[in-house]
Write a structure and sequence with these properties.
15 helices; alpha/beta; five-stranded mixed β-sheet; Glutaredoxin
């Protein structure tokens, strides 16, 4: 395991590159490699790889800047190092104090525009994170607002600072990350107009962003709320899912994986609910992993009696891509007419209870449930490894 080198470390001083051009080339190569993750890699392995890669980048850039502080690439690498420090800490669950210390060290009055913009962005992002943590600690449902970041170019509430940043510097990697976040938030809140605006910014300035296709797919899925949802599917026992025969009952489509505890927990509770309401609920479980025999065994252990769909392709599954599935488990709720009425991206501690509560309301209701989808916090779910800049 590599050891991340922060400012002033002896190891950084010992790693002085011998040639600026060669060092630049090496760092650029590391930056390019950090943006790609093997498609067949597990989520945990992908996080470890990401942490190692960005750790190496932060170390190499620190040594480069100490050796060549006036190099033509110094500003660009300073910005890259801040990002590398953030993603190293994120991948490993570490605190962000070293990033704040580095931001405090930079003299924003003397910094050139590229670095000044980066400092503004990260100050705003850390301020927003601090607000969220504080509001959660205080038991607030939503983060507090108000002036929180006094930076060179942006002043005001963190959300506004970040949005202004993305619109003013749309081609920056930071804007790609902000746009992605805004699209996700807007989709969860069913604000299709806002989501479309940020999707347009992402498509125009970052057409190769790895999250773009998934976000567009989720937007299309949520755009079909209130309409029939009946894609052609084949079960593991080679039977066609007969959606027409399922009408008259409530439908639950569950994207899950036996590898992730929240998925298995939800599957068990759904199966128990289905057993209590044998004539009221149809369940289709779509497995997102690459182990078909393992999924069959897990479903049998649970006692699952619904229809199991599995193509063995994991996150590369056309179904996951077509419907923008990035978090497991994700549940789609269909009314008795087969219309999509709710979506739950269930990375929440109370995910099972909420899902069962919704099913109970739908069973008790004489008609269809109004289209709705609740906001989701990603804390117990499993996110797709590559999520963009």
């Amino acid at each position: 395991m590599l050891a991340l080198v922060w400012p002033g470390s002896r190891l950084a001083a010992q790693s002085r590159p011998a040639d600026a051009a060669a060092a630049r080339a090496e760092i650029d190569k590391l930056l390019a490699e950090a943006e790609s993750t093997p498609k067949d890699m597990s989520h945990a392995d992908a996080l470890r790889l990401e942490g190692d890669r960005y750790e190496a980048i932060a170390r190499r850039i620190e040594a480069f800047l100490k050796a060549y502080p006036n190099d033509s690439a110094a500003d660009r690498f300073t910005v890259a190092r801040l990002r590398a420090m953030y993603w190293t800490a994120t991948a490993r669950g570490h605190e962000l104090d070293p990033i704040q210390a580095e931001l405090d060290r930079i003299d924003i009055e003397k910094a050139r525009p590229l670095v000044r913009v980066a400092v503004s962005y990260w100050q705003a992002r850390l301020a927003r994170r601090a607000l969220i943590i504080r509001s959660v600690d205080q038991g607030e449902e939503t983060p507090a607002t108000g002036p929180t970041a006094k930076v060179e170019e942006f002043r005001g509430p963190p959300e506004r600072i970040m949005n202004e940043f993305a619109r003013r510097y749309p081609e920056s990697p930071a804007a790609a990350a902000l746009s992605t976040t805004e699209v996700m938030r807007s989709l969860e809140q069913q604000d299709s107009e806002h989501a479309a605006q940020w999707l347009d910014l992402l498509k125009r300035h970052h057409p190769n962003n790895v999250a773009l296709a998934s976000l567009e797919a989720e937007a299309a899925l949520r755009g079909g709320m209130g309409k029939s949802w009946a894609p052609p599917l084949k079960t593991v026992d080679d039977r066609i899912v007969d959606w027409a025969a399922m009408k008259g009952r409530i439908g639950l489509v569950l994207f899950w994986s036996p590898r992730y505890r929240p998925s298995v927990t939800l599957m068990r509770r759904v199966q128990a609910f289905a057993a209590e309401h044998p004539d009221m609920l149809n369940v289709v479980a779509i497995t997102i992993d690459d182990d078909v025999p393992g999924a069959k065994a897990a479903a049998a252990d649970i006692g699952f009696t619904g229809q199991l769909v599995h193509d063995g392709l994991g996150w590369r599954s056309p179904l996951a891509r077509k419907y923008g599935i990035r978090l497991l488990p994700t549940a789609l709720f269909l009314d008795r007419a087969g219309n999509l009425v709710a979506i739950e991206r269930l990375g929440r501690r109370q995910l099972s209870a909420e899902c069962i509560a919704r099913l109970e309301r739908m069973v008790q209701s004489a008609g269809a449930t109004p289209a709705e989808s609740q906001p989701t916090e990603q804390d117990d779910g499993v996110a797709l490894p590559a999520t963009g800049d």
